[in-house]
Write a structure and sequence with these properties.
The protein is mainly α and 290 residues long. The protein contains ten helices and two strands; from the N terminus they run ααααβααααβαα. It has a two-stranded antiparallel sheet.
């Protein structure tokens, strides 16, 4: 094996693994100064701007593809997808809340707090930025690059799609390894979550729906009183206590690490696919890679 083949493919293009490592390293360097900013909203805003600008440069010089292939398409349809994603994400979390309460696996009591609409809107903006950041990197950038790398004469489009789906989603799960109360179970369930948010992008070539699902999932959990990715909420509408096994409730990590969260993921996927089929975006099992 020639040394050159370790770094470049048959088209003399730098292999995906090296491009991803270079971009990830450069992105980390560019974002690292933001830690000096004490305002988390400004940190996420800065990181979002840096990521999008970095991807624009990356599309020109490293990946050498059209920027729109990352799923960041600034058109009316993207806004529609975003709104639908927010609605589906909210319904999915509300359904988890209802199922947990009626089944008795969650003990729920109202909390009387003075709501601050300004703070709620700021938190919603923060969750939107988190959704943009994570969906753009893991789905738009990483998933797309992995698929392009594994696709060959020996790998069918569908096989390549499945490999990219699984690998990018596993990396998404492991990216949460530093969160509070993390476990193998939470990483596994978060990887499934990544699959759910990746499929709408694979179908639509647009990150709008995935970003809406992600943002609403995080925001609604926190507002209702769920622990979200190991982070306990402050000033929620309800006080939620687990009244069943960790496998069912997710324990201290929150529903994302349990069967209750899996129900929410499944509902999100079913509603997303139902919406896309209703709007004739799906024909049988089509994805952008068929």
């Amino acid at each position: 094996m020639k040394v050159k083949s370790l770094f470049f493919n048959d088209n003399s293009k730098l292999r995906t693994i090296w491009r991803v490592l270079i971009f990830s390293f450069a992105l980390s360097l560019a974002i690292s100064p933001l830690i000096l900013i004490e305002n988390s909203h400004l940190q996420f805003l800065g990181a979002t701007v840096i990521l999008i600008f970095g991807l624009y440069l990356n599309s020109k010089h490293l990946d050498k593809i059209d920027f729109s292939e990352y799923g960041l398409i600034f058109k009316r349809q993207s806004f529609v997808y975003l709104i639908i994603g927010v609605l589906i994400g909210t319904i999915s979390v509300a359904s988890m809340f209802f199922i947990g309460k009626t089944s008795g696996i969650l003990l729920i009591s109202e909390v009387k707090t003075d709501s601050n609409n300004g703070l709620i809107l700021l938190f919603a903006l923060k969750m939107l930025l988190v959704g943009i950041l994570e969906e753009t990197f893991f789905r738009g950038y990483l998933f797309t690059n992995i698929y392009k790398d594994v696709k060959s004469d020996r790998v069918t489009n569908r096989q390549g799609f499945l490999i990219a789906l699984l690998v990018s989603s596993l990396l998404f799960g492991f990216a949460h390894i530093s969160t509070n109360n993390v476990s193998i179970l939470s990483i596994t369930f978060l990887s499934i979550n990544g699959i759910v948010w990746c499929i709408p992008f694979a179908i639509t070539k647009n990150l709008g729906l995935s970003i809406g699902l992600h943002a609403a999932w995080n925001f609604t959990q926190t507002q209702l009183g769920f622990t979200m990715s190991g982070n306990k909420t402050t000033n929620p509408l309800y006080n939620i206590e687990n009244n069943a096994s960790t496998l069912l409730t997710g324990g201290e990590y929150g529903p994302e690490a349990g069967v209750l969260g899996l129900i929410g993921f499944t509902l999100m996927l079913m509603l997303s696919l139902g919406y896309l089929k209703l709007t004739r975006k799906i024909k049988r099992y089509n994805t952008i890679f068929d």
